[in-house]
Amino acid sequence: MCVKGLCLLTVLSGLAASGMLQVSGMHVYTSGDVEAVNGTDVRLKCTFQSSASINPDSIVISWSFRPLKPGREQSVFHYQQKPYPPLEGIFRKRVSWAGDVMGRDASIILQQVKFTYNGTYICQVKNPPDVHGTVGEIRFRVVTTASFSELLLLALAIGGGIAAVVILLIIFVSCRRCKTKTLRQLEGNEEAPRKERKDPTVCHPGRALHLYLSETSMEIDSSDGMISEASTKDPSSSESEGPSSDEEEDDDDSD
């Protein structure tokens, strides 16, 4: 009995090592309910997780469509080493690959959706040895106008963009004003010492008189262009001396 149990454990260990016990490790995730305005493009998002390493040469991704009205299920898209868009049916030239296998993304884009696209879209991924697991479903609906929630999101996005631009403009204008104010303050500090310079003779009349006498004591000789010093004698003294010499001459004549 123990021998059989040991053999079974050995077999299970070998299967686990080879990956054969991980066939149900595939999990696929989709966005659930999706709405799109008639005539627009929409992305059907599908991601997956696999317990095995991703092999881009062996992974298989398939999209199928089940309409709301009774009808047969039809293929929408197929991927195996490269994308294979449908060659016929209502999705011909209306589906493009938007996924990344190594990034575990199996999304597609429906172009210019129509009301006939209303229905359920099924995303299935196989990554051998993970060939079984969950599948993702998207209930898709085409509408004439966007719903209130979508309009609200759009308005918030536009309002956020405008608010960001306004904030940037306010910051830019504030920086310019601060820079201009700083330059004006610097210019005012440079001009202040110049304005504070005063005439040294205002508060010292004696100094002003001395400067005036110094300036008037210089005269220019017109003959040779040289500057000579003016006589510093008092004119009144010269006039007083003149008559005394004449009186001396008169005294001599009288003698």
Describe the structure.
It is found in: Membrane. Residues 39-144 form the Ig-like domain. Keywords: Disulfide bond, Glycoprotein, Immunoglobulin domain, Membrane, Signal, Transmembrane, Transmembrane helix. Residues 220-255 are annotated as: Disordered. Belongs to the myelin P0 protein family. A hairpin with a 6-residue loop joins strand 12 (218-220) and strand 13 (227-229). The chain is α+β, with helices and mostly antiparallel strands. The longest helix has 49 residues, at 148-196. The chain has a 6-stranded mixed β-sheet, with no helix packed on it. Strands 3-9-8 form a 3-stranded antiparallel β-sheet, with no helix packed on it. The radius of gyration is 53 Å and the shape is elongated. The chain contains 4 helices and 13 strands. It has helices at 2-18, 148-196, 205-216, 235-254, and strands spanning 27-30, 32-37, 42-44, 46-49, 60-67, 74-79, 83-84, 95-97, 108-110, 119-126, 136-143, 218-220, 227-229. Among the domains are: 21-144, Immunoglobulin-like, CATH 2.60.40; 146-187. 38% of the residues lie in helices and 24% in strands.
Order of helices and strands: HEEEEEEEEEEEHHEEH
Instruction: Give the C-level CATH assignment of the domain at 21-144.
Output: Mainly Beta
Strand residues, percent: 15-25%
Name the assembly state: single chain
Unreliable residue stretches:
1-9, 15-23, 219-255
Largest sheet: 6 strands, mixed
CATH fourth-tier homologous superfamily of the domain at 21-144: Immunoglobulins
